[in-house]
Every structure is written in structure tokens, then in C-alpha cells.
Amino acid sequence: TTLNLTGRYQTGTYRNRTIIFDVAHNPAAAEVLSNRLQLDQPSLYGNTMAVFAVMDDKDILSIVSLLANQMDQWFVGELAMNERAARTSLLSNILQDKDQCFYAFDTIEQAFDEAINQSNEQSHTMSKEEAHPKMLFCQRCATCAASRLQKSCA
């Protein structure tokens, strides 16, 4: 499947779940995304799950800090074909330091698949390519696909 991203708060549906794509890759963009999610919260139901991968040279701590209050769970994985991508171990350490519930995977595709598996029709999945029902997909995670889970929350 091919996906064309506009880059900011693009919504779609996958398996009866609302998916929000956003490629926020710096603190300013993460703040805009956080504010948008907060404004839209009354119209979104269920948990907000972030599928998250990011480039290593980005301000990951600030991005996570700005989005932390909007996310119920994080699903992180590496961008396998990009040497600049942050390692899952780094993302996991940052999320753990911020007291976030997260699951770590070898690849972003595995993270996406598990987020879908754990979500229900009242969840939101956000995909942020670098850092919802409602899923947010973040920076550089345009294609996502199964599961070696390192569980880090109850």
C-alpha cells in the first residue's frame, strides 16, 4: 500500500480505527500537535496510542515531553533502512525516564501492528515518524506492518 503524507494531522481509517498521521520532528511541531490533540479530545474516544520513531539528531526528549500528556501508550520501533534513526533502546530510555507506558519493537512496522492489535474501535493511533480508533503515526512511518514485544507497562 502506498501512502502520501501531507505531513500535518492527516487523518484516515484503518480496520475501523481512526489514524492520525503527523510528522512533527521538532519541539515546535510537537507542541502544535499536542495542542491540536487537546482541542480534538472531546471528539475522540478511547486511548491515544503513539507509534513512534525519530531521527537520532532530533530533540527527542523535548518531543516526548511535549506529547507525554496526550498519549496513553507508546509503541516504538526502529526505522530499519535509515542509519540516522534513533535506536529503540534510546527511545525506551527516554520514555521510561518520562514515566510513559510503552512497548518496544525491532521495527516500526512491528510497533504499528501491535498498536493495531491492542487497540479497539474506541482507540486512536497516532503515528509520528521520527515522535488513534485514535492512533498517531509520527515522523517517517508511512508504511507499517508483526511482533516481537518487549513489554514495559502493566
Report on the architecture of this protein.
- This protein has 154 residues and is an alpha/beta fold.
- Helix content is 28%, strand content 26%.
- The protein has four helices and eight strands, in the order ββαβαβαβαβββ.
- Strands 1, 2, 3, 4, 5, 6, 7 and 8 form an eight-stranded mixed β-sheet that branches.
- Strand 4, helix 3 and strand 5 form a beta-alpha-beta unit.
- Helix 1 runs parallel beside helix 2.
- The radius of gyration is 13 Å and the shape is globular.
- 49% of the residues are buried.
Descriptors for this entry?
disordered C terminus; single chain; about 25% strand; about 150 residues; alpha/beta; globular
Please give the structural blueprint:
Layout: E1 10-14, E2 17-22, H1 27-40, E3 48-52, H2 60-67, E4 73-78, H3 88-97, E5 102-107, H4 108-118, E6 124-128, E7 134-138, E8 150-151
Parallel strand pairs: 2-6, 2-7, 3-4, 3-6, 4-5, 6-7
Antiparallel strand pairs: 1-2, 5-8
- How large is the count of helical segments? 4
**What does the overall shape look like?**
globular
Largest pleated sheet: 8 strands, mixed
Mean pLDDT: 76
Q: How is the quaternary structure best described?
A: single chain
- Give Rg in angstroms: 13 Å
Which stretches of 5+ consecutive residues score pLDDT under 50? Answer: 128-154
β-strand amount: 25-35%
Structural class: alpha/beta
* SS elements, strand count: 8
Give the SSE order as H and E letters.
EEHEHEHEHEEE
Distance between the amino and carboxyl termini: 33 Å
As a percent range, the share of helical residues equals 25-40%
